[in-house]
Amino acid sequence: MFRYYLGLALRSLRRNIVLTVLMVVTIGVGIGASMTTLTVFRAMDADPIPQKSAQLFAPQIDSWGPTDNPSEMEDKLEDQLSYIDAMALMHAQRAHRQVAGYATGFALTPENPELKPFKADARATFSEFFAMFDVPFRYGRGWGSDEDLARAPVVVISDELNQKLFGGADSVGRSINLDDQEYRIIGVMAPWEPVPRFYDLTTENFAKTAQVFLPFNRAIERQMRSWGYTNCADRSEPNWQRLLDSSCVWIQFWVELPTAKAAEDYRLWLDDYAREQQRSGRFSWPAYTKLRDFKSWLRNEHVVSHETRLLVLVAFSFLLVCVLNATGLMLAKFMGRSADIGVRRALGANRRAILAQCLIEAGVVGLAGGLLGIVLTVLGLIGLRGALSEQLVQVTSLDLTGVGIAFALAIIATIGAGLYPTWRASRVQPAWQLKAQ
Amino acid sequence: MLEMSHLSKVYRTEVVETHALRDFSIHVREGEFVAVSGPSGSGKTTFLTIAGLLEEFTSGAYRLDGVDVQGMNDDARSRLRNAKIGFIFQAFNLIPDLSVAENVEVPLRYRGFSAAERRRRIRQSLERVGLAARRHHYPAELSGGQQQRAAIARALAGTPRLLLADEPTGNLDTQMARAVMELLEELHRDGATIVMVTHDPELAVRAQREVHIVDGQVVDVAVEPRLLSVAGASARTRF
């Protein structure tokens, strides 16, 4: 009977083309608006490192205390560590892998005289960064712990920088001039642009990855200032050595903990560490630490802003309004066919048969609305490009899952819209319809 | 075939109660051709819709082909209606965006017949009413008489035990009305049980038996009016 009902639905929809177009447009516009915002939301909310995220944690330590704490974080717990704490956690080596790091930069003078010197974004970090975050390499490798300890003048550069400086050739072993110092290229990354740039969300959530990676200890030795945020409780601007000795927070810290037990052990150890700081007199307040898992970290950093969430809510409310409108249109359509329904009932159709016929018709409208909604979503995403960062634009596209969601949403919305009209149609009293004629 | 005993139908609204049928009893035997007549508003159509299981009655008893229909759910009533009853309406009630053949096919679809069986029955029904050549036409492309013949073909396609006709010639001119009546008589001669509602005395007398309804009650029955009129007499009985 499905094919029979489908044929009837198509004829019925052709019979009153204006009403049909109105229903399809109503659903299509609702789907377009909701899917556009949902697609952006999904891109923002996506897991940038799904194969590893369950094992990644960010430790937080209260190094300011509850009194006069200027932190703007909701839990008064800063999302970066002081140099003292970061180094203590690095030296403790309590996690499977641990990485401290901060954003910095250089004046880069290319070998090629045709290229002018330019500022290059850099990241000072430890050797385990590359293994912890599964960074792909086009040429060479990351540096090792020996280079960490030796503060070696080695760098890993991004694929984009390698294209710019060396035309994409294997540049491992060659040198680049950074702040008038020669650095040996030890590895060239393959394109790697996690969205959001989870490992450092202190400046921009959807910023590009750094062009140059260098050993953390080298950057500290060279007194390379952070290009990110440095937050201090007393808001003063300390000199370099005082910065290292202060409670100012400016270092991002990640640990890799492969098992739940490892995570629990680390959490306990982190608490012990803070209590030890209290006992030693460095902290004059009770120990306050957190070990955030990856998803909790993204939420804490408001990667998806409240405004974006609100926008999704508004868009889905709009879809609801569209569904209500479609309900009215379908009610008009189905009630307009009461006579036909009465005849079918008289000829032996039971209520379920009428329900099925009308629901399939609603489903066809939903499919057409879904198609239109997908077209409008693509147009909406093109229209939004100017408002999104370059990184986000690259990952904000309607993928197969999005198309599936759009169709499912359209069909669910339309069948939802059609439920009441369909129920009313199935309750048509054939006797009254036939008497009325 | 059709047996109603002391049946009543009351329509209730907040302010008014209307007795469409009261203490209504009728018995139609297999193979009979019964005309149900009466003035407008007398309850003829209500009787027909209850007989056709399109409406429930308030009290009394109704047996269709030996089956007590009281308390049946919608599904069972629909199945029984589909299997045992063929409807012929005054306004033909063909579905406008279906062809003649597709209209005839409607009850067969709900009956669950195979495609081959549906094709066979459609062909037979349309041949029976002389519309085989018009099978692909749409209702709007047919005359009133042809539309009614298509509706009769639709009613016949499922080989029902009972044909219910509601003013089947009411929307037709004299010539077409005569043709439709002749078709009904022919069907009756072939063994069909027909109950025809009409307010036209000339049509009523062509049935085997006439039941007259006033204010929802059977007031009298004329037995074999055709035969009696031939004899130049009329025998009416209080019911």
List the helices and strands and how they pair.
The complex is a heterodimer of chains A (437) and B (239).
Chain A: H1 2-15, H2 17-45, E1 56-61, E2 81-82, H3 83-92, E3 97-109, E4 118-125, H4 129-132, E5 137-140, H5 145-150, E6 154-157, H6 159-166, E7 175-178, E8 181-189, E9 212-215, H7 216-221, H8 240-245, E10 249-256, H9 260-279, E11 289-293, H10 294-300, H11 306-336, H12 338-346, H13 351-384, H14 390-395, H15 400-426, H16 430-436
Parallel strand pairs in A: 4-9, 6-8
Antiparallel strand pairs in A: 1-10, 1-11, 2-10, 3-4, 3-7, 3-10, 5-8, 6-9, 7-8
Helix pairs in contact in A: 1-13, 2-11, 2-13, 2-15, 11-15, 12-16, 13-15
Chain B: E1 2-12, E2 17-28, E3 33-37, H1 44-51, E4 59-64, E5 67-68, H2 74-84, E6 85-88, H3 100-111, H4 115-128, H5 144-157, E7 162-166, H6 174-189, E8 193-197, H7 201-204, E9 209-214, E10 217-223, H8 225-230, E11 236-238
Parallel strand pairs in B: 3-8, 3-9, 6-7, 7-8
Antiparallel strand pairs in B: 1-2, 1-4, 4-5, 9-10, 10-11
Helix pairs in contact in B: 3-4, 3-5, 4-5, 5-6
How confident overall, as mean pLDDT of chain A? Answer: 88
CATH class of chain B: Alpha Beta
Supply the number of structural domains of chain A: 2
What percent of residues of chain A are in strands? 15-25%
Q: Structural class per helix/strand content of chain B?
A: alpha/beta
- Please estimate the helix content of chain B: 25-40%
Number of E-state strands of chain B: 11
Portion of residues within helices of chain A: 40-55%
How many domains of chain B? The number is 1
Radius of gyration of chain A: 30 Å
Description of the structure:
Chain A has helices spanning 2-15, 17-45, 83-92, 129-132, 145-150, 159-166, 216-221, 240-245, 260-279, 294-300, 306-336, 338-346, 351-384, 390-395, 400-426, 430-436, and strands at 56-61, 81-82, 97-109, 118-125, 137-140, 154-157, 175-178, 181-189, 212-215, 249-256, 289-293. Chain A is an alpha+beta fold and 437 residues long. Chain A has 2 domains: 2-48 and 305-436, no CATH class; 63-256, no CATH class. Chain A has a 6-stranded mixed barrel. In chain A, helix 2 (17-45) runs antiparallel to helix 11 (306-336) and helix 12 crosses helix 16 (430-436). Chain A is elongated and about 95 Å long. Chain A starts with a helix and ends with a helix. In chain A, 43% of the residues are buried. The mean pLDDT of chain A is 88. Chain B is globular, with a radius of gyration of 18 Å. In chain B, the strands form 2 sheets. In chain B, strands 6-7-8-3-9-10-11 form a 7-stranded mixed beta sheet, with helices on both faces. Chain B has 239 residues and is an alpha/beta fold. Chain B has one domain: P-loop containing nucleotide triphosphate hydrolases (Rossmann fold). Mean pLDDT of chain B is 84; it is low at 225-239. Chain B has helices at residues 44-51, 74-84, 100-111, 115-128, 144-157, 174-189, 201-204, 225-230; strands spanning 2-12, 17-28, 33-37, 59-64, 67-68, 85-88, 162-166, 193-197, 209-214, 217-223, 236-238. Chain B contains 8 helices and 11 strands. In chain B, helix 3 packs across helix 4 (115-128), helix 4 crosses helix 5 (144-157) and helix 5 (144-157) packs parallel to helix 6. Chain B is 36% helix and 28% strand. At the A-B interface, helix 1, helix 12, helix 13 and helix 16 of A face helix 1, helix 2 and helix 3 of B.
